[in-house]
UniProtKB/TrEMBL annotation:
GO biological process, one term: negative regulation of translational elongation
Subcellular location: Cytoplasm
This protein's name: Ribosome hibernation promoting factor
Biological role stated in the UniProt entry: Required for dimerization of active 70S ribosomes into 100S ribosomes in stationary phase; 100S ribosomes are translationally inactive and sometimes present during exponential growth.
Family to which this protein belongs: Belongs to the HPF/YfiA ribosome-associated protein family. Long HPF subfamily.
Leader peptide range in chain numbering: none
Record's subunit section: Interacts with 100S ribosomes.
Chief place of localization: cytoplasm
GO cellular component: cytosolic small ribosomal subunit
A GO MF term: ribosomal small subunit binding
PANTHER family per the UniProt record, alphabetical: 30S RIBOSOMAL PROTEIN
InterPro entries noted in UniProt: HPF/YfiA_ribosome-assoc (IPR050574), HPF_long/plastid (IPR034694), RHF-like (IPR036567), RHF/RaiA (IPR003489), Ribosom_S30AE_C (IPR032528), Ribosom_S30AE_C_sf (IPR038416)
Assigned keywords, A-Z: Cytoplasm, Translation regulation
Amino acid sequence: MIKYSVRGENIEVTDAIRSYVESKLGKIKKYFNAEQELDARVNLKVYREKTAKVEVTILVDSITLRAEDVSQDMYGSIDLVTDKIERQIRKNKTKIARKHREKLPASHIFTSEFEAEETEESPAVNVVRTKHVSLKPMDLDEALLQMDLLGHDFFIYTDAEDGETNILYRREDGELGLIEAK
């Protein structure tokens, strides 16, 4: 069963839009067991320049699937985002099954029909470089300065106030994001 949460920014979510989202995202139910609870969060945004952004996040047990698309056509973006989610499921099913074999068998999440499908074996992960970092306490402004000085798109540091590990990163739109580890 999929629980939908459809939210709009600068757009009213009509019954037509809601039913279109539910019918398109309903296609992914075939990959999961019938008793599996899926939580689909859909954000629809319309910008001044008449572009539409569709963001979909699906939570399943310990797995998070996420995709987004920006275009002139909201319905087309919904289609593309659904296809992206399906590709993620197909691509990562083997990895998920392998990683959680002892903890959570793939049959707990995916249907047996999907497990029987041929899946492309993804190439082995090849780590080409390992870096060690010492996390020194600093505030957000100092972390931003350090990130800019290094020329990186992200910076890991320990917050001076609460002692927690944070990750500062530059988003695709040029703005900044902050991940606070708890």
